C-alpha cells in the first residue's frame, strides 16, 4: 500500500496531500485549513464537493460550500451580538438580509502547518491556528487560545481530530461546527436519484424569519421523520433546517447510501456535537451539507440551559476535543 504525505498544490493553491492506498485527501492551510478533497481513486469516488479551477476565485471569496470548512463560532448571531460572562462582543454583520453575523472567523484565513508525515499504514497532517492579541480573530474574540486540527488517512478512511486549548486567564466560549459539503452523487456512474440518507436527528428547532431559533421545537413532517431510519432522498425538499442530535447506539452520524454502486458513505461525527444543520441548496441535486454543530444557532442570546444548547465554556488551561470519521461500507448485493 502506497502511503505518503507531501506538500503540493490544489488548483494552484498550496496544499498538503495525504495518500493511503486507494484513498487520497488534500487540505488547504491558507484557506481555513479546509479539507478540500477526499477521494477513492480505485472507484473514482469524489466524496466532497471540490471547486474546479474556474471556480477557485469564487471559492476563495466564499469558502463555505466546498470541502470541510471549519466554523468558529458557527452559524448566526443576532445583530452580530455575542454576550459572554458580562461582556458583549460585537461581530460584523455579514449577512445583510437577516441582519446577523454568519459563520465566524476561521474558515477563510491562514492556518499553520505544524507537521505532516507518514508511516507504513497511514499519512497525517496537523494544522494549528494560534490566536493572541493582534490576531484577526482576537479582534472579535479577545482570548488566547489554539485550535489544532489533525487529519489521518489510512485503509479505513479519513479521520479528523480537533481540539481547542484555552491558553489565557479567562473562561472562553468553545463553539465549533463544520459546513461539510457531500457530493450526491459521489460515484461517477450514479445519479442523485440513486441516493438516500439517514441522520441522527432529534427535534427540529423552530426558526424565525431571520433564521434564528425561537427556543421552541416544531413537529417533524412525516418525511423528515424518515431521516431517523433512512431511505430518504437528500433532495426530498428544500432544506435549511436545524435539529438537535439524537445519537443511536452511542454514535452520532449521517449515512449516505448509493443503491446503484452498492456503497454507503458514513460520516461519524462524535457526540460532542449537540446540533445538526442540514442545507441542500434549495434541493438542487449534486451536493448537500450535513453540518455537525456543537451549539444551537445564536446560543449566547437564547435563554435555555447551556448544556441543552451546547454553549460550552472552556476554563483557563482546559482542552476540548472531538473526533470524526468518513469511511465507506460495501453493501451486499
Automatic annotation (TrEMBL):
SUPFAM superfamilies: Galactose mutarotase-like
Pfam families membership: Aldose_epim
Residues annotated as transmembrane: none
Domain of life of the source: Bacteria
Protein name per the record: Aldose 1-epimerase
Organism: Paenibacillus planticolens
Amino acid at each position: 500500500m502506497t502511503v505518503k504525505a507531501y506538500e503540493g498544490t490544489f488548483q494552484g493553491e498550496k496544499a498538503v496531500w495525504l495518500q493511503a492506498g486507494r484513498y487520497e485527501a488534500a487540505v488547504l492551510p491558507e484557506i481555513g485549513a479546509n479539507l478540500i478533497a477526499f477521494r477513492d481513486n480505485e472507484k473514482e469516488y469524489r466524496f466532497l464537493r471540490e471547486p474546479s479551477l474556474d471556480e477557485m476565485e469564487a471559492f476563495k471569496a466564499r469558502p463555505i460550500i466546498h470541502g470541510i470548512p471549519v466554523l468558529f463560532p458557527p452559524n448566526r448571531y443576532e445583530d452580530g451580538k455575542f454576550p459572554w460572562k458580562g461582556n458583549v462582543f460585537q461581530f460584523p454583520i455579514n449577512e445583510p438580509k437577516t441582519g446577523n453575523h454568519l459563520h465566524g472567523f476561521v474558515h477563510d484565513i491562514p492556518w499553520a502547518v505544524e507537521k505532516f508525515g507518514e508511516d507504513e499504514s497511514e499519512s497525517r497532517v496537523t494544522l494549528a491556528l494560534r490566536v493572541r492579541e493582534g490576531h484577526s480573530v482576537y479582534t472579535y474574540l479577545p482570548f488566547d487560545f489554539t485550535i489544532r486540527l489533525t487529519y489521518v488517512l489510512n485503509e479505513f478512511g479519513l479521520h479528523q481530530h480537533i481540539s481547542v486549548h484555552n491558553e489565557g486567564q479567562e473562561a472562553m466560549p468553545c463553539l465549533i461546527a463544520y459546513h461539510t459539503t457531500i457530493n450526491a452523487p459521489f460515484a461517477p456512474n450514479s445519479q442523485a436519484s440513486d441516493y438516500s440518507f439517514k441522520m441522527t436527528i432529534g427535534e427540529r428547532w423552530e426558526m424565525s424569519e431571520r433564521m434564528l431559533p425561537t427556543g421552541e421545537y416544531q413537529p417533524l413532517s412525516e418525511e423528515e421523520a424518515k431521516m431517523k431510519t433512512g431511505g430518504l432522498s437528500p433532495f426530498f425538499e428544500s432544506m435549511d433546517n436545524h435539529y438537535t442530535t439524537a445519537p443511536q447506539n452511542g454514535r452520532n452520524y449521517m449515512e449516505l447510501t448509493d443503491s446503484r454502486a452498492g456503497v454507503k458513505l458514513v460520516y461519524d461525527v462524535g457526540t460532542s456535537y449537540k446540533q445538526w444543520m442540514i442545507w441542500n441548496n434549495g434541493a438542487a441535486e449534486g451536493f448537500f451539507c450535513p453540518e455537525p454543530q456543537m451549539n444551537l444557532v445564536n446560543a449566547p442570546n437564547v435563554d435555555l440551559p447551556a448544556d441543552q444548547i451546547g454553549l460550552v465554556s472552556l476554563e483557563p488551561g482546559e482542552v476540548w476535543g472531538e473526533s470524526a470519521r468518513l469511511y465507506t461500507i460495501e453493501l451486499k448485493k
